[in-house]
Amino acid sequence: MNMLYVFLGAGFGGIMRYVISLIIKHPAGVFPVVTLCINLVGCLMIGVLHGYFTKYNFMPEIRLLCITGLLGGFTTFSSFSLENISLLQQGFYLQALCYSMISVCGGIILCGFGLFLSR
Asked: How far are the Cα atoms of 24, 29, 36, 81, 99 from residue 86, in angstroms, in the given order?
């Protein structure tokens, strides 16, 4: 049954990611703005949800559905990795470094902020 919760959540997360990618058009240039925005929003949301779920002792099934499934399907670490490799292969070293630093540092900061918001 737990796999079903993850499966359903991941399906909805993937749909949300796709819809956002349609709404936020990829601007001209090489910087992957859409993936960056999705990853940062996902980091904020995982912080908020984890904080609330811990504070209010939610059922493990809800955690699986929302955190493992929904946010796992929504965030895009595999896309992030591929886009970095692509930037490096094209010789855009500074863009790859900036993208990685903003994604990782911004993600950690926003996850912590999400935990703070949930308190």
From this structure: 21, 13, 15, 9, 12
How many percent of the chain have pLDDT more than 90?
Answer: 82
For 72, how many CA atoms within 13 A lie in the half-sphere containing its CB?
14
d(C-alpha 4, C-alpha 23), whole Å: 29
Rounded to the nearest angstrom, the gap between the alpha carbon of residue 11 and the centroid of all alpha carbons in its chain is 14
Pick from 46-55, 74-83, 91-100, 110-119: least confident: 74-83
What tokens appear for 11 in the block?
Answer: 């399906």
Q: What is the CB-side half-sphere exposure of residue 8 using CA atoms within 13 A?
A: 11
Q: Which two tokens stand for residue 45?
A: 């949301």
d(CA 6, CA 99): 29
User: Tokens for 85?
Assistant: 């490799």
